Amino acid sequence: MSNNTGNSLIALVTGAVIGAGVGILFAPDKGSKTRSKLKEGYKDAEKDFKKKFESLSEEVKNKFATAKVDFEGSYEDLLSNMSYKTEDVISFLEVKLAELKDKNAKLQK
C-alpha cells in the first residue's frame, strides 16, 4: 500500500474538478446539456473512485492475510526452536547434575 495510490486518487479527483470547471466555462451547449455532461462525468469519476477503493481494499486485505500467515509461521518456528533449545538445556543440566552427584559421592567416601 504505497503513497502512490493516494496521490493517484487525489490527482484523479483534482483532474475531475478542474475538467468540470473548464467544461462549464467553455461549454457551447445549453445549460441542461452541460448539466447532463457534468452528471455523466461525476458518475464516471465515482465509478473510477469505487474501483480504486475496492482495489486498494482488496490489496490491504491480501497484505494482512499474508502478514498473518507469515506471523503464524514465525510463531510456530519460534516454538519449535524453543522446544529444541529447552531439550538441549535439560540434557546439559542432567549431565551437570550427574557430574555433581559423582563428585558428591567421592567426597562422602
UniProtKB/TrEMBL annotation:
Keywords: Membrane, Transmembrane, Transmembrane helix. Pfam families: YtxH. It comes from the Bacteria. Signal peptide: none annotated. The keyword Transmembrane applies. The chain crosses the membrane at residues 6-27. This is YtxH domain-containing protein. It comes from Flavobacterium cellulosilyticum.
